[in-house]
Structures are given as structure tokens and as C-alpha cells.
Amino acid sequence: MQMHDIFQQFIDGIKTTTWLEYIAVFSGIASVWYSKKENILVYPVGLINTTIYIWLSVKGHLFGEASVNLYYTVMSIYGWILWAKKDEHHHHVVSITLSGLSEWKIQLLFFAACYAVIFISLSFIKNSFAHGAIPWADALASAAAYTGMWLMAKKKVESWLWWITTNIASIPLYFVKGFVFTSVYYFVLLVLAIFGLTEWMKKAKENNPVN
To answer: Nearest 10 degrees: CA dihedral of 168, 172, 177, 178?
Structure first.
């Protein structure tokens, strides 16, 4: 596909973007911004985004992404409770930290398990009735997102690395499915995730200073 064709597809996609997709995109950007700032509003605002994208993903035969957004919805409630929880001294019980080697191993195993399950499931769905599904790309974006959301609830810096992976995979995935505005949205999220990673790394060092 030539650049002219890609640009024309972009223009056509923007013209057909629904108001529902616009709401999902802008609430998603706001949610990531709040996450970057370690603001608990990341969760209530994010719930608007996830519930809309469950519908949009199913409509576009992106069943892996639909499962991710359902997972986001559940984890948003969990993260909301965890981030709001305080100890007897009124300090938040969860703070931004870096993962140790053992935690990294668990993350990678979690990602691998999610990828395998999603890829096998989507391959079956593709062969059965959803011929437009793209199992490997959908599974990559979805498994990385599952891992990132879990780690964000625990305020782990590495959550941003998984978000970056998700965003890189999702940009072309949604573009080829006709959700052009959503593709642009994931590009914006990619930029925010890079800044979020930098900001959380600084906060992790402040929370755990080296003596």
C-alpha cells in the first residue's frame, strides 16, 4: 500500500468515526494522563473508555481486545480500591516501585500464558466464523495489555513497558480494521506511555532512595 492510499484510508476513516468512538478515545487519553500523574481518577474515567471499547472491539471482530477491555473494567475496580486504600497512618499502602528479578519472571510467564491462550482461542474463532480476525497481532496487544493493567494496579514502573508494547501493536491493528481514529488514539497513548515511564521511574527512585 502506497502512502497516498494510507492517507486516503485515514481521511475516510476519520469521516466515518462515530461519536461513541470519540468519547472512548478522549476518555482513554484522559485516563492515561491521570495514570501518568498517579491520580486515582485514572479508574473512573477509564471505565467509560473500557465499556465503550468492549462494544467496538466485538463489532470489529477484535475479540482479544474485547476481552482486554472486559479485563480492564474488572481491574479498574480492583485498582481503584487498591490505590484508595490507606494504612493506620493515612498513608497509601501502594507506592510506585520497580520490579525485582523474581517479579519480572512472573510477569513474563503471565504474559506468555495470556498470549498462548488468546492466540489459540482467536485462531479457532478465525477458522470458525470470524475470518477477519488477526490472531497473532490481537494476542500480542491483548496479552501485553493484560500484563500492563495488572502491574499498574500494583503501581509497578514496568507497567509502562507493557503499555508501550500494547500501543505499538494496536496502532496498525485498529487501522486495518477501519478504526482510524482509534489508531491515532493509540499513537497518542504511546507518546504518553513513554512520558509515563520516565515520570514513574523518577518517582520510584524518590520512594526508594539508594543509601
So the answer is: 110
The model's pLDDT over 81-108, given as tens digits with 9 standing for 90+, comes to: 999 988 776 777 889 999 999 999 999 9
Confidence of residue 116 (pLDDT cuts 50, 70, 90): very high
* Rounded alpha-carbon distances, angstroms, from residue 111 to 54, 73, 130, 146, 189: 21, 19, 24, 8, 20
Which grid cell sits at 188? Answer: 497518542
3-state secondary structure of 76: helix
Q: How far apart are CA 157 and CA 208, in angstroms?
A: 13
Domain ranges of the chain: 3-86+96-207
CA-derived radius of gyration, the chain: 18
When pLDDT is cut at 50, 70 and 90, the band that residue 211 belongs to is: very low
Say what the pTM is: 0.81
H helical segments located in the chain: 3-15, 19-36, 42-59, 63-84, 101-128, 135-153, 159-176, 180-207
Distance of alpha carbon 157 from the chain centroid:
14
